[in-house]
């Protein structure tokens, strides 16, 4: 399977591996089963023009199994050990761990496992690779200290494609449902502008049969949240991100939202490698296809499009911290 940017061979300063971890073994720890079905972006109300440039027309899947019972148990213990590194993620999530794949070899190996990547490509219907920015691999969310607060607010992701896995047993949770809006992000933005939230009759709460089950999302296009618990409980989810290998597609990332949230030791290098990877592919395609007869303006337009992600990243880095986007004010 495709690898867009290889996982770094060394750890950033200040990161150490968990000791005495079980070694990730796909034959023991995986039990991949395909989802019963998917919904398309068109099903949610997006039009052809909005779908044309994005990674895939797929919006969301039914829950599907990723981990075996043994794999789910190891995953839960790993996330409990990583809880020591939780921090607030801006104005959205109280307790999250980013960069966990620089601390846990088990989590890292699961997140870049080719068999899981292949399963995600089958769901999305396009070639994908684990996200080029390791901070987006194995993102962990934990329950808030105040059970009245949503675990995560209504939002669309800073990444194009991902899955959300239940790490703790969903059957044991009082509330805390994963929910998505059966509509477009533009509709939710209009609701938020009026001080309203998605109406209950258009909110879908998929049933997760157990820990180690996940749901695939077109994260940039599907508005979703983790609802509040109704009582004290351990609630842990893991999000793993992917990129479409076709770099002519839109980037669908909001890396600027990560400034002030992610460790700058990792963020700026990863972000730079990501946009360099995208520009390399676009420039290579330009080199291979741009022939005679191109006018000056056509050349300028083609080159501008090829490096637009690089220029946007430079502008965003210079602009600095901004409030992360979500739909609850």
TL;DR of this structure?
The protein is an alpha+beta fold and 329 residues long. It has helices spanning 26-29, 41-44, 48-52, 69-82, 105-111, 114-124, 185-193, 264-289, 296-306, 308-319; strands at residues 38-40, 58-61, 64-65, 87-89, 93-97, 128-130, 139-142, 152-155, 161-166, 178-181, 203-204, 213-217, 224-226, 236-244.
List the helices and strands and how they pair.
Elements: H1 26-29, E1 38-40, H2 41-44, H3 48-52, E2 58-61, E3 64-65, H4 69-82, E4 87-89, E5 93-97, H5 105-111, H6 114-124, E6 128-130, E7 139-142, E8 152-155, E9 161-166, E10 178-181, H7 185-193, E11 203-204, E12 213-217, E13 224-226, E14 236-244, H8 264-289, H9 296-306, H10 308-319
Antiparallel strand pairs: 1-2, 3-12, 4-5, 5-7, 6-14, 7-14, 8-13, 9-12, 9-14, 10-11, 10-13
Helix pairs in contact: 8-9, 8-10
């Amino acid at each position: 399977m495709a690898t867009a940017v290889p996982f770094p061979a060394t750890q950033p300063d200040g990161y150490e591996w968990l000791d005495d971890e079980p070694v990730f073994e796909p034959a023991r720890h995986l039990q991949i089963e395909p989802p019963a079905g998917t919904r398309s972006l068109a099903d949610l109300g997006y039009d052809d023009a909005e779908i044309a440039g994005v990674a895939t027309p797929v919006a969301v899947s039914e829950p599907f199994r990723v981990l075996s019972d043994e794999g789910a148990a190891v995953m839960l213990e790993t996330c409990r050990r990583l809880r020591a590194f939780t921090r607030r993620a801006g104005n959205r999530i109280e307790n999250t761990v980013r960069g966990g794949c620089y601390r846990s070899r088990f989590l890292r190996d699961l997140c870049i496992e080719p068999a899981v990547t292949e399963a995600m490509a089958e769901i999305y219907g396009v070639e994908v690779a684990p996200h080029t920015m390791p901070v987006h691999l194995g993102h962990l969310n934990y329950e808030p200290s105040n059970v009245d607060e949503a675990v995560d607010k209504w939002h669309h992701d800073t990444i194009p494609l991902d899955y959300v896995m239940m790490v703790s047993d969903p059957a044991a949770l009082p509330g805390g449902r994963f929910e998505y809006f059966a509509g477009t992000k533009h509709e939710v933005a209009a609701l938020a502008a009026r001080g309203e939230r998605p109406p209950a009759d258009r909110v879908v709460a998929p049933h997760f049969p157990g820990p180690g089950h996940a749901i695939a999302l077109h994260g940039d296009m599907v508005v979703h949240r983790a609802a509040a618990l109704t009582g004290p409980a351990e609630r842990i989810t893991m999000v793993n991100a992917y990129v479409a290998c076709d770099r002519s597609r839109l980037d669908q990332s909001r890396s600027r939202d990560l400034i002030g949230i992610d460790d700058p030791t990792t963020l700026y290098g990863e972000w730079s490698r990501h946009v360099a990877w995208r520009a390399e592919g676009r420039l290579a395609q330009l080199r291979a296809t741009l022939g005679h007869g191109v006018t000056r303006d056509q050349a300028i337009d083609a080159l501008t499009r090829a490096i637009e992600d690089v220029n946007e990243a430079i502008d965003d880095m210079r602009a600095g911290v901004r409030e992360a986007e979500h739909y609850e004010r």
